[in-house]
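Hi R.,

Here's the chain you asked about this morning:
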Amino acid sequence: MKIKTRKFGEIKIDESKTLSMPEGLPGFPGFERFVLLEDPKTAPFCWFQSLQEPNLALVLMSPFIFKPDYEIDLKGFIASRGWKNVETKDLLVYVVINITKGEGVNKITANLIGPIIINLKNNEAIQVAISNSIYSHRHNVLESS
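And here is the predicted structure, written out as tokens:
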């Protein structure tokens, strides 16, 4: 299947890799189909690209790369979704990255309270809102431990 993207132009993707967001993406109503695009040139960043809108793509990254002690209750999340025969190893966890270019300084922040969880068994993606968290929606990636 071919899709149009702002970052990569028109590209061919494997249709079996498309992701459904049954609850949509907060702030972007009506957009429920995405694909995760990984490019070795931009690693460890990847792109959460809308299949419906070429200009809608979020930069994602695994939080464990810059915050190895990041914790999220994946077992509780699986139970709350009612996913059967799904284990934590079947899930990918990403956080939305914001890159701000300033005068001589680049700032990279991550939304640790709104991770995107991808279920590899059913190709669903859900953005979770974590309340009462020790984490921030503007965690400085460059100063992480």
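One quick note: The longest helix spans residues 74-81.

Cheers,
M.
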